[in-house]
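hey so i finally got around to running the thing on that chain from the lab meeting. sorry it took forever, my laptop kept dying and i had to restart like 3 times. anyway pasting the input first so we r on the same page abt which one it is
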Amino acid sequence: MSIMKSGSDNQSEKPLFDESLAFKMMDAHFRYSRQISQLASFLSASGEYSILYSLYSGNQDLSAGDLAESMGLSSGRTANLLKALEKKGYISRSRDASDARRILVSLTQKGREFVCKLFHQTQEIYGSLVEALGEKDTLDFIRITEKLLELAKNAE
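ok and heres what got predicted. didnt touch it at all, straight out
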């Protein structure tokens, strides 16, 4: 399906974009996404890193419900992620002293060290990309990425 120029008749309809250019953009996006996910495999799409980062950046205990809400996850998915993180020794869970229905989640020392390690690895990966691209291309990449995210958000 092509986006057609407005006001054109059926016989002379022309796409607003070069379809081969759209294909090249799609191909570049998939190749980039694959490569970045390999480089930063520790930034798992599972949501574990997001939970750890939320706890670290807030520098306070958060309830399981607050974590679920802030990440847009179901309570069941959040519970599974918390269980996995607890098993790895990165978080601990306890009942809120003021409200026994609430479960508070906190980072353990091991969890803090792990988040710091991931943060430094992420800085190294993206730092080398910034160095290779240069400031102008990096800023263009950020601008275009933000624009694409806004377009995708508006398309929902």
